[in-house]
Amino acid sequence: MKRRNFIAAATAGSAGLMTNTLTGQNPSPDPTFKLKNNINHSVCQWCFDHLPLEAFLKVLNDLGIKAIDLIGPKDWPLLKQYGIHCSMCNGAEISLTEGWNNPKYHEELIKNYTALIPEVAAAGYTNLICFSGNRNGMNDYVGLQHCVEGLSKIIPLAEKHGVVIQMELFNQQNHPDYMCDSSIWGVELCRRLGSSNFKLLYDIYHMQVQEGDIINTIKTYHEYFGHYHTAGVPGRNEIDDTQELYYPAIMKAILETGFEGYVAQEFITTWDDKIAALKDAFVRCDV
User: Fold this and answer.
1) Strand, coil or helix: what is 264?
2) How confident is the model at residue 30 (pLDDT cuts 50, 70, 90)?
3) Which homologous superfamily does the CATH classification assign to the domain defined by 35-285?
């Protein structure tokens, strides 16, 4: 899924890995790349769609990364072939702009999620993404209540199957008019639904652009956050020392909350060697 209009190499051996992947040869393991894995690492495939999905899964196997984000049912068999977990499933949503805040989409959304929730569970996965939709002149409190009314129809099924529905937070710069653009709005939605099977996908990049105060927000509201996405600010590029977020401190704050879910890299790399950039990001988050 393409959700948006789409340091030199950090670890030796990545250039060879990239070359082998692009030429269709099996990549060679890189013994210099080792992670502590206190963080459950994942990555959003759309950011690295210069590679076919299967080639990218081979790269993840070589790196020892066990999960990938934002993959729908048609590709789950391929993930299982390579032993890669889908840490955030998609495929039930309509779009980012057409979501749960508008009752006219409820019938379709309820049908979609009712069908997909059991499939997610049967595949051995847990997380399924959803979106608020755009305001289109709607008051935020009205939209919040509409979300509660619609989502409450599928939460019992999610609870039955052990699936967690997760609404992603976005900023207004990249997604003008999107309603779930505030941690407080999202937390209030969680509170009103009152289920541990509904949480927020806390996108660190988006929330830094929109409201800042990342570490304090994580410490205060972590019980409502079920998943994290990364990227650098400004630019949504690498999470290196060219940008204003210090990810090691953010990851330590996440760990201190007792979080056991996944942190997925979701940045658009500017490096020539894209896999080197990905490896660098994993290392920076591997606290």
Assistant:
1) strand
2) low
3) Divalent-metal-dependent TIM barrel enzymes (3.20.20.150)
